[in-house]
Amino acid sequence: MQIGGLPITVIDRQSAARLMIAAARGHRQGSRPYYFTSANGEVIAQARANLEIAALFRDADQIFADGQPLVLASRLLCSTQLPERVATTDLFHDVAELAEQKGVTFYLLGSTEAENGKALAAIKRRYPGLRVVGHCHGYLAGEALEAKLDEINALAPDILWLGLGVPREQIFVRDFATRLANVGVIKTSGGLFDHLGGKVRRAPLWVQKAGFEWLWRMLMEPRRLFWRYVTTNPRALYAILRYSR
Asked: How many Å apart are CA 41 and CA 179, to the nearest integer?
């Protein structure tokens, strides 16, 4: 399925969680990790405006629909319908529940040191049996980054949750995935850790289902997000109407 010009995986949340666990456990050490990412309206707008960003997304093994407008568009414009939204902030919990049962390990890379730590604490409270083999903030460069890549690869987590934002996390995968051959799956995660740590509140469920979580987020952080959504939403709408099938 194509939505806005990007290939979107037709899958529901529980199946996506099972797919991630299976991919992580089936990964052959020494080979490139599986690369799973997500798309929403903002991603589609960026991909249509920048061929390099589009290529970064098309390199993914799976692109999940992390925006309700994509689900609604599939019902109106595509021959196949998306069963539901696969939001990373919800998918994480589906995967964590399965990982806790099956002994699948996590590494958390991204956000600030404070928010990353809060996310880890929240995860440990909710999933006491889950093995998180390491965690680190996302502001590394130079020798510190090189050392961290070696550390993550040595720890060999089954799933690396990578929360650097678009397109930094996709660029990270392009540049460093081959350095992480002992990692099973890299899942790009945007602002996941800020949600897990409690810094950012989710919109009410009815707002999510109506496709207006972006508006909720803008109202929560108008200075940071107003101009972003004003500029990207029209481009996303055009791309979705023009390049979906």
From this structure: 31
